[in-house]
Specification:
With 285 residues, the protein is of the alpha/beta class. The protein contains 10 helices and 12 strands. It binds S-adenosylmethionine.
């Protein structure tokens, strides 16, 4: 396990993932029932973009850095930027929020978050971030095992009918991770069928994703789509040219919100040849 998210925090892939995550949270919190959110690969929760790791790659400058310089943007991007500003108000001008921080920020007093992180130092840092937030339980454990252990969610007497699961693995062993994630989604849908599931994935060459997308379309969700942002042309297998999120049981009108945000992300973060797509794998009936 060599992956450290501190090198990549705030890059184009984080921007896409975090915009989508907040849009899902906002759609779900429109109804009053309590929510449960499970972040299977949570990272350390909070990053500093002036830290050595982030400065060495400079990835955040081409992600959140570029977005912050653009004039007024569509509602989902404005929402994301407001969340980043809230994080900076609380933790300093160079702070950048990880997914569990954004979940805790977007969810309410009666909602609950479980954040899993396997790497001991990252898990310790995550614990520190949430030491005073009783809504967030930090687990140093395998996120895939947590899906089996924690779903369907029940805390004390509360059974959570609604909620979301974010699966954001490091893809160190690329092909195996796609297999693990799809198997985990299939099992989790049996345990908690009505939840919203979001799986992040990297894109080098899009055509090599076809087997994954075909299998994703067979998952027993009510509906599903993929939202992708390519910041480089799809012409090199050697680098991450973009990334995507597979959304299962997406909230109503999430596609409309993202269809507004994705072209703006291409315009703001993309190089020549950048593009976006939003493809339904299984349309809502
Ligand atoms: N979701 C985070 C965010 O958006 O801020 C970033 C997570 S990063 C891409 C992936 C994290 O998963 C790393 O911190 C890594 O240590 C952790 N990890 C790797 N394998 C894991 C596993 N099997 N279970 C839980 N965490 C794992």
């Amino acid at each position: 396990m060599n992956y450290r998210h501190a090198f990549h925090a705030g890059n184009h892939a984080d921007v896409l993932k975090h915009v989508v995550l907040l849009a899902v949270c906002d759609a779900l919190t429109a109804k009053p029932a309590p929510l449960f959110a499970l972040d299977t690969h949570a990272g350390r929760g909070l990053y500093r973009l002036d830290a050595d790791a982030a400065r060495r790659t400079g990835e955040a400058a081409d992600g959140i850095g570029r977005l912050l310089e653009l004039p007024r943007q569509c509602a989902p991007l404005e929402r994301y930027l407001r969340a980043v500003q809230a994080c900076r108000m609380a933790h300093g001008a160079e702070a950048y929020p990880g997914s569990p921080w954004l979940l805790a920020h977007a969810l309410r007093e009666h909602d609950r978050v479980a954040a899993c992180e396997l790497q001991p130092e990252e898990a310790e840092a995550l614990r520190t971030v949430f030491s005073r937030d009783p809504r967030v339980a930090v687990h140093q454990r395998d996120g895939y095992a947590a899906l089996k252990a924690l779903l369907p969610p029940r805390i004390g007497d509360t059974r959570f009918a609604r909620g979301l699961v974010l699966i954001d693995p490091p893809y160190e062993a690329q092909l195996e991770e796609f297999d693990h994630a799809l198997a985990a989604l299939r099992q989790s849908l049996e345990r908690w069928p009505q939840a919203v599931y979001a799986l992040w994935y990297p894109i080098k060459r899009r055509r090599s994703l076809q087997p994954f997308l075909r299998r994703a379309a067979t998952l027993p969700a009510k509906s599903s789509f993929v939202a992708e942002l390519m910041v480089h042309p799809d012409d090199s297998p050697l680098r991450m040219n973009g990334s995507g999120l597979l959304l299962l049981n997406p909230p109503w009108r999430l596609d409309t919100a993202l269809a507004a945000a994705l072209p703006e992300l291409v315009a703001g973060l993309g190089q020549a040849g950048a593009c976006w797509r939003l493809d339904w794998l299984k349309a809502a009936t």
